[in-house]
């Protein structure tokens, strides 16, 4: 159940119908439901989504997704399963490509771009010439009796990954709660009321796909379908969605595809979906068996168990990072009002919410074994979505995964490496038949079938380094984890990506450099209607990273010494970056001026972010030129373009400008009411890019050092973050007051030298190894840099003298703490309770209270994971509970101090409730 504080119950307004979304922006009602600090990780609304998908709330377990509309009398769960894609396995490679390559290259090198593009369009396009779309499964619709309602409150709680709804109708308080469980692979819908026998609903499936509906048994409905045909490829992914009701009290029947529940006190509807997609070349999976076995397994588990298993799984990931950027009364408004009014308000907590929303969306759309998050994550209501809701490699897919390692969700990255592995097969064929080359190649898009050829026309698709960019992520991920097995398993993909370019780079006749030809600087014409070129700057930057990654991985794995020598020789002949006549980073080999000065792609700053080839201290001239490039391109852009620019400005260490770009993103034309980023239309890359950008403002590690608080804006004067990750294997927590660092707490995964850069080190500071209480020896290579030898498993604390320490080892502090517990208010069928925790000898902070109520429900709530308070009386946690008031019973809660997710299991403190 979602926590409903008494204040909400009193303040909630009447339900209405959500307004349709106008693409150029939307408006929020002005009346605001009052929220409280307790709800800081909650998206909250006082109206249903109506028919507006961008007001519905996303839930997901990586594979299954749903958009929950929260309409009082007509609930809609728009359903997705991440392998339901149009078409089926296909081989897109164009066998004519290799023969035409020499002539295409000649045309490009002699600046005959139009004829070159024509020839590419004739000989290099994949077959089909476009890729295939990710598609919806359909909808589960739940009809409730119509009636007048009041006290409507709709939420998405990021700390529990649960969409909830409550309202009062006919004197009865109704609750709805929906979550997608990863451990049990079902979507769980829970309907309750505070009066016995008050829940009566019917449920049906529908879909825009080719489907049939049925009632396989007396408590289940089914939707059996097959994905659509597209681009001449026959739809072949079969899917089965099942919904089964389990009721307490009342009756459940199912016939003719309609599920009827009447007179129940509570109902759990389990939604299970199976798909026949096995992998990119096999679609004969037992989709019905999968759907049924998941459902049968989940049915055997009590609702409370389903919920606590979901919470344990989700919170183990989500709880690794907490963030507090300060809070103002602006956070008391509903989420849509906060977005609509962001420009005129100081609402630092919204940055924390958007940051955590990105992490929530990644956990919900990308788990080990699932498909990677596509352009819309896993949430798509269409059979023909914009840009096919696939994987665009020239900006969007990489951006989706920028926050994966930095915000401590490394596991969520793994589906990308599976996709890369598939592309090493399909892309090897494309490399061979279209380039006569070894290794593998992927161009600017791919899909569930791992299409690797050129698509959409030369102007957009003739870009060779999509696979190369993906392959660089193998090395980057390894830098965070140090996982040798991972590196060994993925090294062949890295080597194959490099091999392709060793085989295909050609010497630029006028300059002598080795360059890609044909390629482009993504989607930007350098002359009218001409984007095709040789050796665009972005390609050269990506290839430097790829060759370095491959060579260094080969070294670490002690393999391929000869190849390494060749790769390094090729690398040294790549064109260097150049400063153009306008003081900018040149985007092409020639100093051309882009045809669209404000184009959304700023590809040639790949070298600034995500790469590290342009740095403030290492390449000061290029750094200045990168600044100038961004000034020339301007701040405006699509959602993802703004998000990338937050990262760029963070890397330039310009906190004010990074924050300005963040604010530009929080506008009604760039953020939907449900906080989905708008290109427009909805594209999830902007969400992930924003989360990454905020992480980059707080911690950077791209330059063989941890740079702590490199771009902290004035707008977040006092705050705290825990659990960020840095390359080299560091987990970092930081606290600051009035713009000045109080402390950094750094845990090292591995032995080695650590370089720490921070303004703090130019002032006075202390450093201690918290694990053995020693004072590490340090050197000061620069005035703001401290260097020390760190040991695996040790935690180090650098602090401003006098700053209150945050305990990081938490097994003793909570045990020494005491707590008192009291019911502070009650209402029909529920109550609100309060706990006051008193620290032991040491002050404690950064704590979580998990409430476990007598019927086994776990409510992880209030300032869960984010509230930080220091001092002897640590503070109060409130929880609301809708259920029978326990009379004199015993209620327990777990208490965690320190960094959530890093702690040992919390001790359980038992209190008497009355
Ligand atoms: C690239 C971008 C577009 C859009 C699409 C999915 O083509 O240039 O802006 O994000 O991918």
Describe the protein.
- One of its GO terms (biological process) is carbohydrate metabolic process.
- The structure is a single chain.
- The model is unreliable at 1-23, 30-38, 807-818, 826-830 and 839-914 (pLDDT under 50).
- A nine-stranded antiparallel beta sheet has the order 1-6-7-8-9-16-13-12-11. A seven-stranded antiparallel beta sheet has the order 2-3-4-5-10-15-14.
- The protein contains 20 helices and 40 strands.
- It is globular.
- It has 914 residues and is an alpha+beta fold.
- The protein is 27% helix and 26% strand.
- The longest helix has 22 residues, at 414-435.
- Among the domains are: 62-92 and 127-308, Beta-galactosidase, Chain A, domain 5, CATH 2.70.98.50; 382-404 and 413-610, Glycosyltransferase; 729-799, Immunoglobulin-like, CATH 2.60.40; 809-913, Immunoglobulin-like.
- The structure holds alpha-L-fucopyranose.
- Residues 375, 387, 392, 396, 523, 600-601, 638, 640, 679, 683 line the site of alpha-L-fucopyranose.
DSSP summary, beta strand count: 40
- Morphology: globular
Uncertain residue segments: 1-23, 30-38, 807-818, 826-830, 839-914
CATH class of the domain at 382-404 and 413-610: Mainly Alpha
Q: Which CATH architecture of the domain at 382-404 and 413-610 would you pick?
A: Alpha/alpha barrel
Radius of gyration: 28 Å
Structure summarized in a few sentences:
This protein has 914 residues and is α+β, with helices and mostly antiparallel strands. Among the domains are: 62-92 and 127-308, Distorted Sandwich (Beta-galactosidase, Chain A, domain 5), CATH 2.70.98.50; 382-404 and 413-610, Alpha/alpha barrel (Glycosyltransferase); 729-799, Sandwich (Immunoglobulin-like); 809-913, Immunoglobulin-like (Sandwich), CATH 2.60.40.290.
């Amino acid at each position: 159940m979602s926590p409903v504080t008494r204040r909400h119950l009193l303040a909630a307004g009447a339900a209405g119908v959500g307004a349709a979304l106008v693409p150029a922006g939307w408006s929020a009602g002005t009346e605001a439901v009052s929220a409280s600090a307790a709800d800081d990780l909650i998206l909250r609304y006082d109206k249903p989504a109506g028919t507006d998908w961008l007001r519905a709330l996303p839930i997901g377990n990586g594979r299954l997704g749903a958009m929950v509309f929260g309409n009082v009398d007509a609930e809609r769960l728009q359903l997705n399963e991440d392998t339901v894609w149009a078409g089926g396995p296909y081989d897109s490679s164009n066998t004519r490509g290799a023969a035409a390559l020499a002539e295409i290259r000649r045309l490009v090198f002699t600046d005959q771009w139009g004829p070159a593009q024509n020839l590419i369009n004739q000989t290099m396009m994949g077959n089909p010439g476009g890729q295939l779309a990710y598609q919806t499964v359909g909808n589960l619709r739940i009809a409730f009796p119509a009636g007048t309602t009041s006290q409507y409150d709709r939420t998405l709680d990021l700390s529990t990954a649960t969409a909830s709804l409550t309202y009062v109708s006919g004197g009865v308080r109704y609750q709805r709660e929906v979550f997608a469980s990863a451990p049990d692979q079902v979507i769980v819908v829970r309907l309750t009321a505070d009066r016995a026998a008050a829940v009566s609903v019917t449920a049906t499936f529908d879909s825009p796909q080719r489907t049939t509906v049925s009632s396989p048994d007396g408590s289940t409905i089914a939707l059996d379908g097959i994905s659509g045909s597209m681009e001449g490829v026959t739809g072949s992914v079969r899917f089965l969605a099942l919904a089964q009701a389990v009721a307490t009290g009342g009756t459940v029947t199912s016939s003719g595809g309609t599920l009827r529940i009447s007179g129940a006190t509570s109902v759990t509807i389990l939604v299970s979906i199976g798909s026949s997609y096995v992998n990119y070349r096999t679609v004969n999976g037992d989709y019905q068996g999968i759907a049924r076995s998941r459902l049968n397994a989940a049915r055997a588990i009590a609702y409370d168990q389903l919920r606590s298993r979901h919470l344990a799984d989700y919170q183990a990931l989500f709880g690794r990072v907490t963030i507090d950027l300060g809070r103002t009364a602006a956070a008391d408004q509903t989420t849509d009002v906060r977005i609509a009014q962001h420009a005129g308000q100081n609402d630092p907590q919204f940055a924390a919410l958007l940051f955590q929303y990105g992490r929530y969306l990644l956990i919900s759309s990308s788990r080990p074994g699932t498909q990677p998050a596509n352009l819309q994550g896993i949430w798509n209501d269409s059979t023909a979505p914009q840009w096919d809701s696939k994987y665009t490699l020239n900006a969007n897919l990489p951006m989706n995964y920028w926050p994966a390692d930095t915000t401590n969700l490394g596991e969520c990255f793994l589906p990308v490496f599976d996709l890369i592995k598939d592309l090493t097969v399909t892309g090897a064929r494309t490399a061979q038949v279209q380039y006569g080359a070894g290794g593998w190649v992927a161009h600017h898009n791919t899909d569930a079938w791992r299409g690797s050829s050129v698509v959409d026309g030369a102007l957009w698709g003739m870009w060779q380094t999509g696979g190369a960019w993906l392959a660089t992520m193998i090395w980057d991920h390894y830098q965070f984890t140090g996982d040798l097995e991972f590196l060994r398993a993925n090294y062949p993909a890295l080597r194959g990506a490099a091999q392709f370019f060793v085989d295909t780079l050609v010497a630029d006749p006028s300059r002598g450099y080795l360059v890609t030809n044909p390629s482009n600087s993504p989607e930007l014409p350098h002359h009218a209607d001409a984007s095709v070129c040789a050796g665009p700057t972005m390609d050269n930057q990506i290839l430097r990273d790829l060759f370095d990654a491959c060579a260094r991985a080969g070294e670490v794995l002690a393999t391929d010494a000869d190849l390494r020598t060749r790769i390094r020789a090729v690398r040294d002949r790549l064109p260097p970056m150049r400063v153009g006549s306008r003081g900018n980073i040149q985007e092409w080999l020639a100093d051309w001026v882009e045809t669209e000065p404000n184009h959304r792609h700023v590809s040639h700053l790949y070298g600034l972010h995500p790469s590290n080839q342009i740095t403030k201290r290492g390449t000061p001239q290029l750094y200045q030129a990168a600044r100038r490039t961004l000034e020339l391109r301007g701040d405006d852009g699509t959602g993802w373009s703004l998000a990338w620019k937050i990262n760029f400005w963070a890397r330039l260490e310009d906190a004010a400008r990074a924050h300005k770009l963040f604010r530009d993103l929080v506008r009604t034309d760039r953020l939907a009411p449900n906080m989905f980023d708008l290109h427009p239309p909805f594209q999830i890359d902007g969400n992930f890019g924003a989360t990454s950008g905020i992480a980059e403002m707080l911690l950077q590690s791209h330059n063989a050092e941890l740079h702590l608080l490199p771009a902290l804006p004035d707008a977040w004067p006092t705050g705290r973050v825990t659990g960020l990750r840095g390359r080299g294997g560091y987990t970092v927590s930081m606290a600051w007051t009035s713009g000045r660092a109080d402390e950094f707490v750094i845990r090292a995964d591995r032995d080695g030298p650590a370089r720490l850069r921070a303004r703090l080190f130019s002032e006075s500071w202390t450093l201690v190894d918290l694990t053995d209480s020693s004072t590490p020896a340090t050197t000061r290579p620069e005035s703001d840099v401290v260097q020390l030898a760190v040991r695996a498993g040790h935690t180090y604390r650098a602090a401003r003298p006098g700053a209150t320490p945050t305990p990081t080892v938490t097994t003793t502090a909570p045990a020494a703490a005491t707590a008192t517990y009291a019911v502070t208010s009650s209402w029909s069928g529920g109550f609100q309770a309060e706990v006051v925790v008193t620290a032991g000898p040491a002050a404690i902070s950064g704590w979580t209270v998990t409430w476990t109520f007598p019927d086994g429900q776990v409510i992880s709530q209030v300032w869960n994971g984010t509230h930080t308070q220091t001092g002897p009386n640590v503070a109060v946690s409130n929880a609301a509970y809708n259920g029978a008031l326990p009379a004199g019973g015993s209620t327990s809660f777990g208490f965690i101090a320190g960094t959530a997710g890093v702690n040992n299991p919390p001790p359980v403190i038992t209190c008497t409730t009355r």
